[in-house]
Amino acid sequence: xxxxxxxxxxxxxxxxxxxxxxxxxxxxxxxxxxxxxxxxxxxxxxxxxxxxxxxxxxxxxxxxxxxxxxxxxxxxxxxxxxxxxxxxxxxxxxxxxxxxxxxxxxxxxxxxxxxxxxxxxxxxxxxxxxxxxxxxxxxxxxxxxxxxxxxxxxxxxxxxxxxxxxxxxxxxxxxxxxxxxxxxxxxxxxxxxxxxxxxxxxxxxxxxxxxxxxxxxx
Length: 218
Ligand code: PRP
What we know:
This protein has 218 residues and is α/β, with parallel strands linked by helices. The protein has helices at residues 15-26, 61-67, 77-83, 109-113, 125-135, 151-154, 169-173, 193-198, 200-217; strands spanning 7-12, 43-46, 51-56, 72-76, 88-92, 98-104, 118-122, 140-144, 160-165, 177-185, 187-191. The chain is elongated, with a radius of gyration of 20 Å.
């Protein structure tokens, strides 16, 4: 890697970015500028370590990494599955653990069992498609929503939802339940495929150190 070139991280704005910085700090990577929570800045630099961090919307993280605008990204497995970008997934960071599930009211259980034509509301149409078409071989009508998808079955837009379940309290408070589990999720570190070769001298030791730290925490 050329001298004076920054290693660039794309982080999903919010909790995931905070957790990532906590973890990086444990292996000696810090970014003082980022600690000011009231800041609206999007790009932060550690001149000494030649590191750059930028904050984007979660679903855009794999896009920045695939195109090489960022060398490294941290993003939820849900986003990786949904976006289907060409990146290397190198580490499970262990935080942000939750599950992707099919949820709905009790009455929808039978519809799932008998492979009936149902309507599925989701922020994750690709994950829903992959699960119902390729895994369950069930033809469904997928309706893309942008959030608060629990509303779908409540107002009878759909029969079930495909969504993230963490504590389960959103489901409970809205009279819904987990009907089927699709997969476990957590935060992952991803790397641009070219950077992995070209910046191997910086990226590989970083991954090794993080792995070691994560092992210690187990
Ligand atoms: C996510 C998800 C569920 C909720 C699950 O929503 O879509 O609604 O969290 O968490 P729980 O099991 O701990 O209740 P988010 O807060 O990201 O907002 P959104 O509905 O706008 O996507």
